Each structure stands twice: as C-alpha cells, then as structure tokens.
Amino acid sequence: MLVLLGILVVAGIVVATYLFSLAYTFNTQTTTIAPAFPVEATRPVRAPAAEHAMNILLMGSDVGAGSGASEDLPGVPNGARSDTMMLMHIPENRDDVYVMSIMRDTWTELPGYGEHKINAAMSLGGVPLVVRTIEGMFHAPVDHVIIIDFEGFKGLTDALGGVEVNNPIAFQSEGVHGEFFDQGPVTLDGDSALKFVRERYAFTDGDYQRVENQQLFIKGVMSQLLRADTLTNPLKISDVVHQISPYLSVDEDFNAGTAASLAFSLRSVRTDDVHFFTLPNLGIGTSLDGQSIVLKDDAAIAEIADALDTDSLGEYLESSHTEDQDVQG
After folding, report:
1. I need a labelling partner for 287 at 20 to 30 A (CA). Which of 90, 107, 125, 239 fits?
2. Half-sphere exposure for 293 (CA within 13 Å, toward CB)
3. Do the Cβ atoms of 87 and 277 come closer than 8 Å?
4. How large is the C-alpha radius of gyration of the chain?
C-alpha cells in the first residue's frame, strides 16, 4: 500500500495516457475482497475529532508457503491466512503516516468465537471477522483493507533493482535453499527479499524479529522508490505496478482512483515521515489449551484507541517511546 501511494504520487507528474495505463493495470490485475467488512450494525462510529483521518488494515499472506485456509469463507482471496497484520493510520493533516504491526499470536477475543490468536480470525470468519476484531480492539473504524501475497515481494524487489536494508542481526534462513544474511547493510534481490521477510525460526524471539524485519523491508522499499533514479524513470514505475498488482487484494471501494486521491493528499510525505511501531504486549504466555501466545497489553491498547479517536497517535508515540528507533534509522 505504501509503495503504491509513492508510485501514484510520482505518476502525477507524467502524461494522462501513462496514468491511464497504470490505473488500468491496477484495476484489472488486483483481486477484489468481497465482502471485506462486517455488517454495519456491528461497527464502531468514527469519533468527531478523527472525522477526516483514515485507517487502513494491511495484511500479508503467505499463500506461496502453503497456508491451508478455506477459500469458502467470506473475503478470503486465494485461501490466504493473515500471517502479517498492520494497521496504517493516516491523520487528518496528512503530514505523517503511522504503521502499527500486530503480532499474529496476540491472544484476543474474536467476536462470536471466543479467545484465539488474532491470526485465526481469517480462517474462522474471513476478512470481515478480522476487521470486526480490529475494530473491536481499538473502537475505531477500518476504512480500507489491502492484502498482499508475500510472493509479490520478489517481482517488486527486482523491479526496483534491489532493496537495501540495515539488518540488525545476522541469521541463516531455513530450508534447503536457505540464505545467510550478514549483519549491517544488505542489498536484497527478489528471492532474498522473500526469505528475509518470511524467516522467524532463526531468531530466539521468533515473530518479534520477523515483524521488525518486515518493517525494515517496507522502509527500504520506500527509500528505493523515492530515489531520483526511480522517480524519473516511468518504465521502472510501470514495471513496479505490473509486478505488484497481481499479488494485491483490495476492498471493493479501493480502486486506482481512490489510491490516486489518497496519494495526492500525501504528496508531501517522505520516508522519514512514515513511522513504524509494534503494538505493545506483555510478552509470551500459554493459553489454557497449551498454545504459545502473545499476551495483550490492555492498557496500551486503550491508550492507542484513545489516540485514534482524538487523531493524536503521533503524540502517543512521542510520550510512550513506542516507535522503533532501529526501523527509523
């Protein structure tokens, strides 16, 4: 989603036929999530102070790795599971973008199903249940939903000519075709990018480091996209759109026009204005049925819910020091 916004900002400076081509590619190659939202009666009402803010639920699915979710559930494109979940908040002033990662093993109430890991919502009730769960946690409406299959990272990375990340921990990815990633600046090609964002078994803290690596990769993509040699290269921009669109699933109201309008409103945002953080939690625990889970921090969730209601998430991050300084670097 962040990549597409950058692309559309760039596209605003070129000719109409080029814009039409990008829009046609996006609208015809993406998959529509239908339905993406729960019934209106179950959804929260937006607070007046956040009337012009926007919340977008971003999910990464690992269909290529074999997810096993049912294709018969509502709004489950390609049988996907929500292996990665982020809530992107865009404030009314459009000066910044805030991206909050939610650990997939977070133990919480799934409406109508009792307590489960949050990533079970997709397999139990499809995208509408995921949205209802997130809206129930933060008492704030989700405006759009976007899902990307991790396989799309390969073509995206190669279309950009590689993506550089500052890897905080050296590790060897799993599998016969595993790869070693040294500590420090690493340039990823397509296959390497997929291994980098998928890996969790190589780390003592598992998903915690994987979430940070995914944030680092997205930050690296944005930095590469906003480089001068990308901004001035229509062929590269077109290639990026063609490579990523087939791996995107979006809600019915999110089309190229919606993305372009949002991108124009964010035209002043640059890489350092995008702030990543992870939903605070109370660490690892065990459920009554023996599952390893991530324990919710209800106090932090309440503070974030209040910040979303008052469109003051930036102030919350400054006061709580929650923002990940490594991802900012």
Report:
1. 125
2. 19
3. no
4. 19
Per the prediction, the chain carries an average pLDDT of 86
Domain of 95, in residue numbers = 2-328
Question: Rounded to an integer, what distance in angstroms lies between the CA atom of residue 227 and that of residue 265?
Answer: 20
Q: How confident is the model at residue 328 (pLDDT cuts 50, 70, 90)?
A: very low
What is the average pLDDT across 69-89? Answer: 66
Strands 107-110 and 54-61, by their bridges, are unpaired
Give the strand pairing for 31-33 and 248-251. Answer: parallel
pTM, entire model: 0.86
- Residue 77 pLDDT > 70, yes or no? no
Q: Total structural domains in the chain?
A: 1
CB 80 within 8 A of CB 69: yes
In the chain, beta strands by DSSP E: 31-33, 54-61, 84-90, 97-102, 107-110, 114-117, 144-149, 163-167, 171-172, 180-181, 184-188, 248-251, 274-278, 281-286, 292-296
**C-beta of residue 11 within 8 angstroms of C-beta of residue 235:** no
- Peptide bond before 35: cis, by omega within 30 degrees of 0? yes
DSSP strand pairing (274-278 vs 97-102): parallel
The predicted pLDDT at position 72 comes to 53
Name beta bridge partners: 181: 171
Give yes or no for a contact between 302 and 315, defined as CB atoms under 8 angstroms apart. Answer: no
Structure tokens of 107? 């133990």
